TrEMBL record:
Domain of life: Bacteria
UniProt-recorded name of the protein: FMN-binding negative transcriptional regulator
Length: 198
C-alpha cells in the first residue's frame, strides 16, 4: 500500500473544502472540453465523497457536451510546491515536488430545480455564515434573471484516486527540516496533517 494515500476519507473532503476550484474534463462531440468551477463535496455518513455539486453557465458549450455524454473526470489540487535540497541537512538528498491531488471519475446529472440552492450553498461555503457574510438575497431582484442563465449539476462519484505526496517517505529529521524551513506555509501545514503517527 502506498504511503501517499490520505489518512482518512475525511481528508479528501477537507481538501475540496479548502481548495474548491476543480477542473471538469470530458470528451464531447468536438473533442475534449474542460471547465474550471468551484464545487462542493457531498459526503456519506463515513465522510466518503459521493457527489460533487456546482453550477454551469448555460451558454458554456460544456453543458451540451455533458448532456451528450455525462461522464467526466474532475480534478482537485490542494497544497503543492517544490522542495529544494537547500532546506535539508542531508547533502545527498535530491529535490522533489510535494502535492495533494484528487481525481474523480463521475457521471454528471443536471438538476435545474436545485440551481438556487447551488448558488446559496456555494456562497455560504465561500463567505461563511458569520456577521457581514454576503448572501444571495442581497442581490434582490437581480438574482432571478441571473439564475435563468445557470444550471446546477451533481456529479456522482464512480471512482476516486487521491495522492497526498507530502513527505511521508522522508526520514523524521528531513521531514521536520522541510516543515520548519519551507517558505510555503500552506504546504508545510498540509505535510503536518498528512504525517503518519506511529
Amino acid at each position: 500500500m502506498s504511503v501517499f494515500i490520505p489518512r482518512a476519507q475525511g481528508d479528501i473532503a477537507a481538501l475540496i473544502a479548502a481548495h474548491p476550484l476543480a477542473w471538469i474534463v470530458s470528451n464531447g462531440p468536438a473533442g475534449f472540453v474542460s471547465t474550471p468551477l468551484p464545487l462542493l463535496a457531498e459526503c456519506d455518513g463515513e465522510g466518503r465523497v459521493v457527489a460533487l455539486f456546482g453550477h454551469f453557465a448555460k451558454r458554456n458549450p460544456h453543458v451540451a457536451a455533458l448532456e451528450a455524454d455525462p461522464r467526466a473526470a474532475i480534478l482537485f489540487q490542494g497544497a503543492e510546491g517544490y522542495v529544494s535540497p537547500r532546506l535539508v541537512s542531508n547533502p545527498t538528498w535530491g529535490p522533489t515536488w510535494n502535492y495533494a491531488v484528487v481525481r474523480f471519475e463521475t457521471e454528471v446529472v443536471f438538476v435545474p430545480d436545485e440551481t438556487p440552492s447551488a448558488v446559496e450553498r456555494l456562497a455560504a461555503h465561500l463567505e461563511g455564515t458569520g456577521p457581514g457574510a454576503w448572501t444571495v438575497a442581497e442581490m434582490g431582484a437581480r438574482a432571478v434573471p441571473m439564475l435563468d442563465h445557470i444550471v446546477a449539476f451533481r456529479a456522482w462519484v464512480l471512482s476516486e484516486q487521491a495522492t497526498f505526496k507530502l513527505g511521508q517517505d522522508e526520514s523524521a529529521q528531513t521531514f521536520a527540516e522541510i516543515v520548519e524551513r519551507h517558505p510555503n506555509a500552506a504546504l508545510a501545514d498540509a505535510m503536518r496533517g498528512a504525517a503518519r503517527k506511529e
